[in-house]
Amino acid sequence: MLDYFTKTKEAFKRLATDKDGVVSFEYIIVAACIVAVVLAVFKTDTSISTALHNGIVKISSTMSGL
Questions:
Q1: DSSP letter assigned to residue 28
Q2: Domain-by-domain residue ranges, the chain?
Q3: Given CB 3.0 to 4.6 Å as the disulfide criterion, which of 21, 26, 47, 56 pairs with 15?
Q4: For 35-58, how does the pLDDT look when each residue is reduced to its tens digit (9 = 90+)?
């Protein structure tokens, strides 16, 4: 467990000193915002959620019949 902590700590140190890491961090922030918007849409709009659920059910039932 301590080994993972040490590796993570070293990775964050490299990220903080690397100028390219700043760009990667910005992409992470943008991706998190996109995920938040998608989750908000799926939680509030039940028609999209229902359509997605029905599609997954149809695919899984077809796959189980193979």
A1: H
A2: 1-65
A3: 21
A4: 988 888 777 767 777 888 899 999
